[in-house]
Amino acid sequence: MPWNQRRLCNTTLLVLAIAAIAGADEENTRPRGARNVAIPGFGEDGLRIWEMRSFQAIPLAHGVVDAKDLLLTIFSGPKVETILKSPKARFHTEDGNATSDSRIQVTGPGYEISGKGWKWNSNRSRIQIKANVKAVFNEEFDDLFQ
Question: What is the mean pLDDT of residues 136-145?
């Protein structure tokens, strides 16, 4: 397993353990998750390349986390490159992927994209939007379509 994936798994397991403990109800031992969770992802150089924040994270079986009010920030060096927002998602900690059938809004330098249903692959730095895609670019493409 590559270093960044091991680091992701170790960090995620720690966050999930804290979430399970913090979310346990005295009357009902079933975990409710944790609020205001942040899970970082690191590159081989040890720098943070992405960070997933969620208002509520509920750990499920096999390293899967249900996240509500997701905010995913992707970095290029120390600079914020892309921001992804979605009301809910399912994050697969072992693979570094997230999926959702909910709406999504992606903002980056010179563009905004929205749609419904999506998949994010951290290993390939790729976001796929399934339906109702709307893209707005703040650049002129005069030479592109000639």
Answer: 75
